[in-house]
Amino acid sequence: MTSTLRRTTFKALALAAALGLGFAAPYAMAQNKTVIRISTAAVPEDWHAKMWTVFKDSLEKSAPGEFEVQIHLNATLFKQGTEPAAMARGNLEMAPISAQDISKIVPEFSIFTAGYIIRDPDHQQKVFNGPIGQEVFKPVVQKMEVTPLATAYLGTRQVMLREDKNVMVPADLKGVKLRMPASKEWLFLGEALGATPTPLAFGEVYLALKTGTIDGQENPLPSARAAKFYEPSKTVVLTSHLVDAIFLAYSTKAFNALKPEQQKKVVEAAQAAAKYNNENRIKDEKEIVDFFKAQGMKVITPNVAEFRKTVQEKYQKSEMAATWPKGLLERINAVR
Ligand code: KDO
């Protein structure tokens, strides 16, 4: 275990202790094993699907015979976006949750749903694994009854269109039906980019692109490759509008029911999974543009400064920004 991992593990446990989480008897059991049901919308080929196998293997090694980890991909167990409520009710032990999921209950978290705030994956890890992370996760544990254990880099989101189209500035996206995940924070982002946002679950995007119900979607490129969104698309626009995260979260009720040594092992396994995802995804993103070019797609580098300016102005004026704690944006910017 690296010292950073040890520190973060300690912090996660310290956070749980600070919030007065008790340690009771095991929660959901099967043949004397604690069952960990995991639900995610990730497709099998994506890094943030494969990372759950790393989680499972890590736990089998550190706590042999104690846990039964059940991984459900493609949103087959719970619909995308319904996982936090399922965890709060105790019907699900683990899921990756997004900043947009959190913002529904903890509005100030919407600062992390805004375009062009987090600069890159390194900035993201430093923000969430440092004092800001400690602070912003507290209301998540208190209000949502889920405990974030690790931050995974979902990737930098880019726009992809089904037509061959020159997009250099937000105005070029006018009237483009851009699929966004279904929540108000996501739709706001689509609008800020200059498009007409259309809500749809991840699992429905491929067909919607194929049939023309939507004109495009935006996702990190490794996810777009894993879900084969390039097949019905012609253009990639490298807007890099959101350096996206997902948080590997555990139902607080279920987490409290684990023994302290088990909690520690679960946190370590979650952090190993996130590390695996992050390393692979960062490497992938460095090379992936060539893959899309090889598929015959047009890859455009737009005027990112113009996108950044337009998007940031929209957020500054939004109702969302009014919920952001004073000084937080400056503190996020100051993290190096
Ligand atoms: C998506 O629906 O576009 C999104 O990228 C949103 C993320 O928060 C996350 O739910 C992700 O889908 C899924 O894990 C599928 O990759």
Short description:
It comes from Propionivibrio dicarboxylicus. By secondary structure, the protein is of the alpha/beta class.
Walk me through what this model shows.
The protein is α/β, with parallel strands linked by helices. It has a single domain (33-334), classed as Bacterial extracellular solute-binding protein, family 7 (D-Maltodextrin-Binding Protein, domain 2), CATH 3.40.190. Helices cover 46% and strands 21% of the residues. The chain is built from 14 helices and ten strands. The chain has helices spanning 3-18, 47-62, 83-89, 99-103, 121-129, 131-144, 184-192, 205-211, 221-226, 252-256, 260-294, 304-316, 319-323, 328-334; strands at residues 29-30, 33-39, 67-72, 94-98, 146-161, 177-180, 196-199, 216-220, 235-251, 298-300. Helix 7 links the parallel strand 6 and strand 7. Helix 2 (47-62) runs antiparallel to helix 11. The longest helix is centred in the last third of the chain and has 35 residues, at 260-294. Residues 1-7 and 16-26 have low confidence and may be disordered. It binds 3-deoxy-alpha-D-manno-oct-2-ulopyranosonic acid. 3-deoxy-alpha-D-manno-oct-2-ulopyranosonic acid binds at residues 40-42, 46, 48, 80, 98, 181, 202, 219, 223, 246. 3-deoxy-alpha-D-manno-oct-2-ulopyranosonic acid (KDO) binds at residues 40-42, 46, 48, 80, 98, 181, 202, 219, 223, 246. It is found in: Cell envelope. This is Tripartite ATP-independent transporter solute receptor, DctP family.
